[in-house]
Fold this sequence. Notes:
Layout: H1 2-21, E1 26-35, H2 38-47, E2 54-59, E3 65-74, H3 77-87, E4 94-95
Antiparallel strand pairs: 1-3, 1-4, 2-3
Amino acid sequence: MEEKQNLEAFYKKLKKQLEDNTDFPSQYxxxxxxxSQEDKKEALYRVFxxxxxxxxxxxxxxxxxxxxxxxxxxxxxxxxxxxxxxxxKVEGIVSx
Length: 96
């Protein structure tokens, strides 16, 4: 329960920061790190499959992780947060 409250507070703060500092619509850069497992990669690609996102990936030197950079035009702060929340469902993901 506490984790959910912390997450809600985080997204509320992020929304305010985005609204104060970003002119929408705008291009937004998401950065994620996930374990280098095919099912995790596919799950993250699925989050953005219905968009015009430009996705680049890079495998870590150890091969255990993959970094994702996702550039996407977004309409508003709510849309930015929506994609963070959807990506957050991928097990083991780290949002940067």
